[in-house]
Design brief:
The complex is a heterodimer of chains A (341) and B (306).
Chain A (H helix, E strand, L loop, with lengths): L10 E4 L5 H4 L6 H13 L4 E3 L20 H11 L4 E6 L6 H9 L4 E7 L7 H9 L3 E7 L6 H13 L5 E4 L7 H15 L6 E3 L7 H10 L4 E4 L13 H11 L7 H12 L11 H9 L5 H12 L3 H11 L7 H13 L1
Helix pairs in contact in A: 2-3, 2-10, 6-7, 7-8, 9-10, 11-13, 12-13, 12-14, 13-14
Chain B lengths: L5 E6 L3 H10 L5 E7 L5 H8 L3 E3 L2 H5 L8 E4 L3 H14 L2 E4 L11 H4 L8 E3 L3 H14 L6 E9 L5 H5 L1 H14 L5 E9 L7 E9 L5 H16 L5 E3 L4 E3 L9 E9 L11 H30 L1
The chains are: A alpha/beta (341), B alpha/beta (306).
Catalytic activity (chain A): (S)-4-hydroxy-2-oxopentanoate = acetaldehyde + pyruvate; (S)-4-hydroxy-2-oxohexanoate = propanal + pyruvate
Pfam families (chain A): DmpG_comm, HMGL-like
Protein name (chain A): 4-hydroxy-2-oxovalerate aldolase
Chain lengths: 341, 306
Amino acid sequence: MTRPQLAHDVRIVDTTLRDGSHAMAHRFTETQVRDTVRALDAAGVEVIEVTHGDGLGGSSFNYGFSRTDEMQLIAAAREEARRAKIAVLLVPGIGTVEDLRRARDHGADMVRVATHCTEADVSPQHFAAARDLGMETAGFLMMAHRTPPEDLAKQARIMVDAGCQAPYCTDSAGALLLHEARARFEALVAEVGDEAWVGYHGHQNLSFGVANSVIAQEVGVRYIDGSLCALGAGSGNSPTEVLAAVFDRLGVDTGLDVMGLLHAAEDVVRPYLTRWPKMDRNAIVQGWAGVYSSFLLHAEAVAERYKVSAHEILERCGELGLVGGQEDMIIDVAIELAAER
Amino acid sequence: MSPGTVTAAIVGPGNIGTDLLAKLRRSSVIDVRYMVGVVESDGLARARERGIAASAEGVDWLLRQDPLPEIVFEATSAKVHTANAPRYAKAGVRAVDLTPAHLGPMVCPPVNLHAHLDAPNVSMITCGGQATIPVVHAVSRVTPVPYAEIVASVASRSAGPGTRANIDEFTHTTGRAVAEVGAADRGKAIIVLNPVEPPMIMRDTVFCMIGGDADRAAIAASIHEMVAEVQRYVPGYTLRAEPQFDEPRETWGGHARVATFLEVKGNGDHLPPYAGNLDVMTAAAARVGELMAQQKIEQQTIGAQA
């Protein structure tokens, strides 16, 4: 499989309607999705991701039930987008090939298959299915701070060999410092050569999402993720509207209309926000202790239920080395902390 | 054959087969006579060291032996078991299947084995299924469970290439078995691989949707009773905390929830203790064999008396 032709210097992928699902506690309505897709599409965003925050099949006790069936949201997004591709996230172990087929039937054009950064060998089954379905592909190596650059590159190789067109350095914990991010970008770009593009997905927990994106572009990363109003897990993602403005100032062509994105952020997304992701104590602890950003709302809810503090829960999650998907352990940790009192 | 024992064979001399052998050798009713592979391996050598007839000539060799085994434990692959199963059936050999072939009824010893003790072929479901279905059943025998969801976290080192190449098989089979064997209206399964060092001990969380007015004390007592039952064959199967009850929520369709947090520590027979996910499979398979053998011996005794 070859990498797709790019129309611009970098391809900004907007994940407001997927990573943002975490911050919205998976309560998106069809109207919110339609309005957001229309605004993103009009502003020139090429790829819009729409899925439960934890990917296809994520609606559950463990991660939170979706208010609206994600297939209905995917179909609505597909109807609204005139130019943009609609992407879905799939985390093997949560979602399955069967879910992917349904998403394809509902109009998804692209899939991003996500594994922990050392477990890429659970993804070939899903990349093979995506190829058969004629979908574009990307691969998330999540919690990329947890493995050194050379090992991350080996994992990217597994994905590329399985049919992934764009392996990502996915900084799920928003933990990568500038030099750590750069080393990973360089290792991935060197590994995949011209067989695939390299992507970067950032979180703002230590405020580096946009700065790391600038470094990424400089060293050859070509897919960069953002969310309007930073809407995403933890303190959110690199804001799409800021990425557009910064790359415009740098003279990097993104094909995006800055004013259009500012309108989308300010007039479409902000009115429906139930919380505006920010760098508060809990989110900073996530970046500092290397905790999966999606744990934030769960830790806050469980903290209240068991009368312990969320930042202590999150710090303990970091010590235990929990990975994405282990949201159930947050309850276990809270019970343990309450018992230690 | 010593009186009062049932002759058995293990097909597949890898880590699972070797661990299963260690467990079956502690049984007073099962006599493992044969270990079978298709190439010479450490597993065959280890079996020979223990005085077991071991061959790299596959099932052809096994089915030429006299006596034939009465029970064969298959720890190969779905493809191999699918090919072997009709041959076992033809020879009158019962099969306990640890592969993902799922040809026979899915069994979990403390839940539904009594209904399948005479089945010619039984499936051991999945590791996550063996670890969690007892708890789903413990809840559903007290109160209706419209939906059950399990999350299995396992150490990366304990997830072999077969599991990794087809992780959807785990998700589908376990989700189906949680509903069908555990007796919930709907089931869902999630698996997470964690590479942390030192390796994490297998953890399982079982979420059951229940009515807001369900008898919580009875549910908790039933879960405790079931955990004790599983401990008879998996000593390291423990509750991390008391079952946790959460009040009804609008986002749960107005239902309440009971959450059970389990740790599954292996016995460390051949596999390391953190690999509770593998141990729970071999321990459950050994338990199935043991109960099948006991029933057979009882029937023979009754037959002799008559």
